[in-house]
Protein backbone atom coordinates (compact mmCIF):
# COMPACT_ATOMS: atom_id res chain seq x y z
CA UNK A 1 0.00 0.00 0.00
CA UNK A 2 2.87 2.29 0.85
CA UNK A 3 4.59 1.61 -2.45
CA UNK A 4 1.43 2.24 -4.40
CA UNK A 5 1.00 5.54 -2.57
CA UNK A 6 4.56 6.38 -3.43
CA UNK A 7 3.88 5.54 -7.02
CA UNK A 8 0.81 7.73 -7.04
CA UNK A 9 2.77 10.51 -5.43
CA UNK A 10 5.66 10.14 -7.93
CA UNK A 11 3.18 10.04 -10.78
CA UNK A 12 1.46 13.13 -9.46
CA UNK A 13 4.80 14.93 -9.12
CA UNK A 14 5.86 13.97 -12.66
CA UNK A 15 2.57 15.19 -14.03
CA UNK A 16 2.85 18.43 -12.09
CA UNK A 17 6.37 19.01 -13.35
CA UNK A 18 5.34 18.20 -16.89
CA UNK A 19 2.45 20.60 -16.67
CA UNK A 20 4.68 23.24 -15.14
CA UNK A 21 7.27 22.64 -17.85
CA UNK A 22 4.70 23.16 -20.60
CA UNK A 23 3.43 26.31 -18.99
CA UNK A 24 6.98 27.53 -18.55
CA UNK A 25 7.71 27.01 -22.24
CA UNK A 26 4.69 29.09 -23.19
CA UNK A 27 5.60 31.82 -20.71
CA UNK A 28 9.25 32.09 -21.76
CA UNK A 29 8.69 31.72 -25.45
CA UNK A 30 10.36 34.71 -27.17
CA UNK A 31 8.05 37.28 -28.70
CA UNK A 32 7.50 36.96 -32.43
CA UNK A 33 10.15 38.75 -34.53
CA UNK A 34 9.36 42.20 -36.00
CA UNK A 35 10.45 41.70 -39.61
CA UNK A 36 6.96 42.67 -40.82
CA UNK A 37 7.38 46.19 -39.39
CA UNK A 38 10.85 46.67 -40.88
CA UNK A 39 9.84 46.20 -44.57
CA UNK A 40 6.88 48.50 -44.06
CA UNK A 41 9.19 51.19 -42.75
CA UNK A 42 11.69 50.67 -45.54
CA UNK A 43 9.04 50.51 -48.30
CA UNK A 44 8.59 54.30 -48.86
CA UNK A 45 12.36 54.73 -49.22
CA UNK A 46 12.56 51.95 -51.80
CA UNK A 47 9.82 53.58 -53.98
CA UNK A 48 11.06 57.05 -54.93
CA UNK A 49 8.69 57.22 -57.89
CA UNK A 50 5.72 57.62 -55.54
CA UNK A 51 4.81 61.33 -55.41
CA UNK A 52 5.71 63.05 -52.19
CA UNK A 53 3.23 65.53 -50.81
CA UNK A 54 4.47 69.10 -51.15
CA UNK A 55 4.28 71.48 -48.21
CA UNK A 56 1.13 73.60 -48.30
CA UNK A 57 3.20 76.80 -48.36
CA UNK A 58 4.68 76.00 -51.78
CA UNK A 59 1.34 75.33 -53.48
CA UNK A 60 -0.20 78.38 -55.18
CA UNK A 61 -3.49 79.49 -53.72
CA UNK A 62 -6.50 78.58 -55.91
CA UNK A 63 -7.45 82.24 -56.32
CA UNK A 64 -3.97 83.10 -57.56
CA UNK A 65 -4.02 80.24 -60.04
CA UNK A 66 -7.42 81.27 -61.37
CA UNK A 67 -6.29 84.87 -61.68
CA UNK A 68 -3.10 83.84 -63.51
CA UNK A 69 -5.17 81.84 -65.97
CA UNK A 70 -7.51 84.77 -66.54
CA UNK A 71 -4.88 87.48 -67.01
CA UNK A 72 -1.79 87.34 -69.26
CA UNK A 73 1.72 87.81 -67.93
CA UNK A 74 3.94 90.76 -68.94
CA UNK A 75 5.41 88.99 -71.98
CA UNK A 76 1.98 88.07 -73.35
CA UNK A 77 0.64 91.57 -72.68
CA UNK A 78 3.59 92.99 -74.63
CA UNK A 79 2.75 90.68 -77.54
CA UNK A 80 -0.90 91.81 -77.45
CA UNK A 81 0.24 95.45 -77.53
CA UNK A 82 2.48 94.67 -80.50
CA UNK A 83 -0.41 93.05 -82.37
CA UNK A 84 -2.71 95.98 -81.60
CA UNK A 85 -0.09 98.40 -82.90
CA UNK A 86 0.15 96.43 -86.14
CA UNK A 87 -3.63 96.28 -86.61
CA UNK A 88 -4.18 99.56 -88.37
CA UNK A 89 -7.09 101.83 -87.71
CA UNK A 90 -10.10 101.04 -89.87
CA UNK A 91 -11.28 104.11 -91.82
CA UNK A 92 -14.80 105.03 -92.95
CA UNK A 93 -16.45 107.08 -95.67
CA UNK A 94 -18.12 110.36 -94.76
CA UNK A 95 -21.33 109.88 -92.78
CA UNK A 96 -21.04 106.06 -93.04
CA UNK A 97 -20.41 103.31 -90.52
CA UNK A 98 -20.12 100.25 -92.82
CA UNK A 99 -16.65 98.72 -93.12
CA UNK A 100 -14.90 99.39 -96.43
CA UNK A 101 -12.65 96.72 -97.99
CA UNK A 102 -9.53 98.55 -96.77
CA UNK A 103 -11.03 98.71 -93.25
CA UNK A 104 -11.69 94.96 -93.32
CA UNK A 105 -8.11 94.34 -94.40
CA UNK A 106 -6.84 96.52 -91.55
CA UNK A 107 -8.89 94.61 -88.97
CA UNK A 108 -7.91 91.28 -90.47
CA UNK A 109 -4.19 91.84 -89.88
CA UNK A 110 -3.03 89.71 -86.93
CA UNK A 111 -6.58 89.31 -85.60
CA UNK A 112 -6.28 85.48 -85.70
CA UNK A 113 -3.28 85.49 -83.36
CA UNK A 114 -4.95 88.09 -81.17
CA UNK A 115 -8.06 85.88 -81.02
CA UNK A 116 -5.98 82.85 -79.96
CA UNK A 117 -4.27 84.78 -77.16
CA UNK A 118 -7.45 86.43 -75.84
CA UNK A 119 -9.28 83.10 -75.72
CA UNK A 120 -6.84 81.98 -73.01
CA UNK A 121 -7.37 85.08 -70.84
CA UNK A 122 -11.07 85.89 -70.42
CA UNK A 123 -10.37 88.72 -67.94
CA UNK A 124 -8.29 90.64 -70.48
CA UNK A 125 -10.39 93.10 -72.50
CA UNK A 126 -9.97 95.45 -75.44
CA UNK A 127 -11.66 98.75 -76.14
CA UNK A 128 -12.85 99.62 -79.64
CA UNK A 129 -12.96 103.39 -80.04
CA UNK A 130 -15.23 105.01 -82.62
CA UNK A 131 -14.13 108.42 -84.02
CA UNK A 132 -15.58 110.98 -86.44
CA UNK A 133 -14.45 114.11 -88.26
CA UNK A 134 -15.40 117.60 -87.11
CA UNK A 135 -18.48 118.02 -89.30
CA UNK A 136 -21.92 117.54 -87.77
CA UNK A 137 -23.23 118.02 -84.25
CA UNK A 138 -21.56 116.47 -81.20
CA UNK A 139 -24.61 114.26 -80.55
CA UNK A 140 -24.77 113.01 -84.14
CA UNK A 141 -21.06 112.21 -84.17
CA UNK A 142 -21.28 110.36 -80.84
CA UNK A 143 -23.95 108.09 -82.34
CA UNK A 144 -21.97 107.66 -85.58
CA UNK A 145 -18.77 106.83 -83.65
CA UNK A 146 -20.69 104.23 -81.68
CA UNK A 147 -22.08 102.64 -84.87
CA UNK A 148 -18.55 102.46 -86.32
CA UNK A 149 -17.22 100.79 -83.16
CA UNK A 150 -20.10 98.26 -83.30
CA UNK A 151 -19.25 97.38 -86.91
CA UNK A 152 -15.64 96.69 -85.94
CA UNK A 153 -16.74 94.65 -82.93
CA UNK A 154 -19.09 92.55 -85.08
CA UNK A 155 -16.20 91.78 -87.43
CA UNK A 156 -13.86 90.78 -84.58
CA UNK A 157 -16.54 88.62 -82.95
CA UNK A 158 -17.01 87.00 -86.37
CA UNK A 159 -13.34 85.94 -86.42
CA UNK A 160 -13.71 84.40 -82.95
CA UNK A 161 -12.81 87.04 -80.36
CA UNK A 162 -15.29 86.69 -77.47
CA UNK A 163 -17.84 89.51 -77.43
CA UNK A 164 -17.52 90.09 -73.69
CA UNK A 165 -13.83 90.91 -74.13
CA UNK A 166 -14.61 93.84 -76.45
CA UNK A 167 -15.87 97.10 -74.98
CA UNK A 168 -17.19 99.93 -77.15
CA UNK A 169 -16.67 103.64 -76.68
CA UNK A 170 -17.49 106.55 -78.95
CA UNK A 171 -15.49 109.76 -78.84
CA UNK A 172 -17.39 111.35 -81.71
CA UNK A 173 -15.34 114.31 -82.94
CA UNK A 174 -13.67 114.93 -79.55
CA UNK A 175 -10.31 113.22 -80.21
CA UNK A 176 -9.11 114.00 -83.73
CA UNK A 177 -5.68 112.81 -84.88
CA UNK A 178 -5.51 115.63 -87.42
CA UNK A 179 -6.58 119.28 -86.97
CA UNK A 180 -6.59 120.58 -90.55
CA UNK A 181 -9.95 121.44 -92.11
CA UNK A 182 -9.80 119.42 -95.34
CA UNK A 183 -10.83 116.01 -96.66
CA UNK A 184 -7.37 114.46 -96.25
CA UNK A 185 -7.44 115.28 -92.54
CA UNK A 186 -11.09 114.42 -92.05
CA UNK A 187 -10.45 110.97 -93.54
CA UNK A 188 -7.85 110.28 -90.82
CA UNK A 189 -10.35 111.17 -88.14
CA UNK A 190 -13.17 108.89 -89.39
CA UNK A 191 -11.86 105.68 -87.87
CA UNK A 192 -12.01 102.96 -85.24
CA UNK A 193 -9.02 102.38 -83.03
CA UNK A 194 -8.44 99.32 -80.79
CA UNK A 195 -6.59 99.53 -77.48
CA UNK A 196 -6.11 97.32 -74.44
CA UNK A 197 -8.34 98.33 -71.55
CA UNK A 198 -6.64 99.66 -68.45
CA UNK A 199 -6.59 96.80 -65.94
Structure description:
The protein is α+β, with helices and mostly antiparallel strands. The chain has two domains: 28 residues; 126 residues, 2-Layer Sandwich (60s Ribosomal Protein L30, Chain: A). It is 53% helix and 11% strand. It has a four-stranded mixed β-sheet with strand order 1-4-2-3. Helix 4 packs antiparallel against helix 6. The radius of gyration is 43 Å and the shape is elongated. About 14% of the residues have low confidence.
Shape: elongated
Distance between the termini: 117 Å
State the helix count.
Answer: 8
Please trace the helix and strand order, writing H or E for each element.
HHHHEHHEHEHE
Mean pLDDT over the full residue set: 76
Instruction: Spell out the CATH superfamily of the largest domain.
Output: OmpA-like domain
Instruction: Supply the helix-strand structural class.
Output: alpha+beta
- CATH architecture descriptor of the largest domain: 2-Layer Sandwich
By DSSP, the count of extended strands is 4
The biggest sheet amounts to: 4 strands, mixed
* Spans where pLDDT lies below 50 across 5 or more residues: 37-48, 53-68
- How much of the sequence lies in strands comes to 5-15%
Alpha-carbon Rg, integer: 43 Å
**Total number of distinct structural domains:** 2
Q: How do the strands line up in the largest sheet?
A: 1-4-2-3
CATH class of the largest domain: Alpha Beta
CATH topology of the largest domain: 60s Ribosomal Protein L30, Chain: A
Query: In percent, how helical is the residue content?
Result: 40-55%
Amino acid sequence: MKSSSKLVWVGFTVLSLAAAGCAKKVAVAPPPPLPAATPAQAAPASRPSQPQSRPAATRPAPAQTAQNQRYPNAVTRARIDELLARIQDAYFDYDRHSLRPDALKALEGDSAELRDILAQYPAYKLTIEGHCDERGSAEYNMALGDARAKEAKDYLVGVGIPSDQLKLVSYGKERPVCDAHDEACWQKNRRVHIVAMAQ
